[in-house]
C-alpha cells in the first residue's frame, strides 16, 4: 500500500500548530494498517506506536521555566506531547517535555560542534540521541552517549520531523528501517 500524504501543511516550512497537527495525524493514520498486521508480519505484538497530542499531558508552560530551552521546542510541545515509534526501524522517540526539562536541569545542555550547546530531546531505540542547538540545528550523537561527538542531522526541527516522517513512510512501505 502506498500512503499518500496530504500537502496542505506538509509543504509549509513554518513549524506551527497546524503543521504539527497535520504531521501528527498523518503519521498516526499511516500507522493504523501497519499495527493491524504487525504481529502477523513480524511474529510479535507491536509496542505503543503513536504521536501523542499535547492534551495528553497536564497543561502548563513548563518550557518557560528553563533558560536553555530553545523557543522552537516550546512551539513543538504546545502541540505534541511525545513521539513513540518503538517499532519503526530501530525505534524513534521524541521525549516528553518533563523528561527533557528534567535531563536539562540535572545534566545540563550537551556540547555540539562549533562550541555550541544543545538540548537533548529525542533518541532512537539504540540510544542514539537527538539534540537541538540554540540556533535550531538538529544534531545526532555518533554513539549512545551525551558525552561524545554529535554531528549535524537536520537544518531545523521541521527538517528533522520531515526526515522522521520519511523514515516512517519507508518502514511502512518496505520494512526497511532507513537511517535517521
List the topology elements.
Layout: H1 17-42, E1 50-53, H2 71-79, E2 80-85, E3 92-94, H3 97-107, E4 110-112, E5 116-124, E6 129-133, E7 138-141, E8 150-154, H4 157-174
Antiparallel strand pairs: 1-2, 2-3, 3-5, 4-5, 5-6, 6-7, 7-8
Helix pairs in contact: 1-4
Tell me what you see in this structure.
- The chain has 180 residues and is an alpha+beta fold.
- The chain has a single domain (17-174), classed as SMI1/KNR4-like (3-Layer(aba) Sandwich), CATH 3.40.1580.
- The protein is 36% helix and 22% strand.
- The chain is built from four helices and eight strands, in the order αβαββαβββββα.
- It has helices at 17-42, 71-79, 97-107, 157-174; strands at 50-53, 80-85, 92-94, 110-112, 116-124, 129-133, 138-141, 150-154.
- Strands 1, 2, 3, 4, 5, 6, 7 and 8 form an eight-stranded antiparallel sheet that branches.
- 34% of the residues are buried.
Keywords:
4 helices; 22% strand; alpha+beta; 36% helix; 180 residues; disordered N terminus; eight-stranded antiparallel β-sheet; SMI1/KNR4-like; single chain
Q: Which segments are poorly predicted (pLDDT under 50) over 5 or more consecutive residues?
A: 1-12
Largest sheet: 8 strands, antiparallel
What is the CATH topology descriptor?
SMI1/KNR4-like
Give the terminus-to-terminus CA distance: 23 Å
Structural class: alpha+beta
List the helices and strands in order: HEHEEHEEEEEH
Estimated helix fraction: 25-40%
Q: What number is the mean pLDDT? A: 88
Tertiary shape: globular
Number of strands: 8
Share of β-strand residues: 15-25%
Which CATH first-tier class would you pick? Answer: Alpha Beta
